[in-house]
Specification:
This protein has one domain. The model has no long low-confidence stretch (mean pLDDT 81). It is mainly α. It is 65% helix and 2% strand. The protein is built from eight helices and two strands; from the N terminus they run E-E-H-H-H-H-H-H-H-H. The radius of gyration is 20 Å and the shape is extended.
Length: 173
């Protein structure tokens, strides 16, 4: 198989065996290691509780956002309206924090599924196009394209934070 320009020589049996081992270890860790079980159940537990940790509050914000997406039939609540919906219609407690704190969910919940799919496709096409263009440019431009590709890939995980952080200049550095 060729993935991201790298040839991977793994058989289907090796991939399935490795996946099975990882899944088994994860289930055993969940079953027999109380701290891991506690962390997972804290994130899953949604009933009211006297003190809500930051992680549970964040998960509740994400759950609320997905509920709003369902209530709007996938069309979104409108640009900038997530905070209003969180404050007014929030079924799950969020410690009085109303920003959904996730760039990807903010686009999905705010603008709807169609715009989100277009955004993700455009993002993926940028990465794909940069990989393809690297073949036809000189070495200096390849390094620049590698930097852009690295930024785009790191941004996927790094953007699981408040969209307001995108306005902070040093955050981009």
């Amino acid at each position: 198989y060729v993935l991201l320009g790298v040839r991977w020589d793994f058989t289907r049996k090796q991939v399935l065996t490795t996946g099975s081992i990882v899944l088994t270890l994860a289930i055993l860790a969940f079953a027999f290691v109380p701290p891991i079980r506690g962390m997972v159940t804290d994130l899953i537990y949604i009933l009211p509780r006297p003190v809500i940790s930051g992680d549970v509050g964040r998960m509740n914000m994400w759950r609320n956002g997905l509920m709003y997406l369902g209530k709007t039939f996938g069309l979104g609540v409108g640009a900038g309206n997530i905070e209003v919906w969180m404050e007014t219609f929030g079924p799950l407690p969020t410690n009085n924090i109303f920003n959904i704190h996730n760039w990807w969910l903010e686009i999905l919940v705010g603008y709807g599924a169609f715009i989100f799919i277009a955004y993700v496709l455009g993002y993926a096409l940028m990465i794909y196009r940069l990989f393809n263009l690297k073949k036809f440019v000189n070495r200096m431009h390849q390094k620049i394209m590698n930097a852009f590709i690295s930024f785009l890939l790191v941004f996927i995980g790094a953007s699981i934070t408040s969209a307001n952080n995108m306005l902070i200049e040093w955050h981009w550095v």
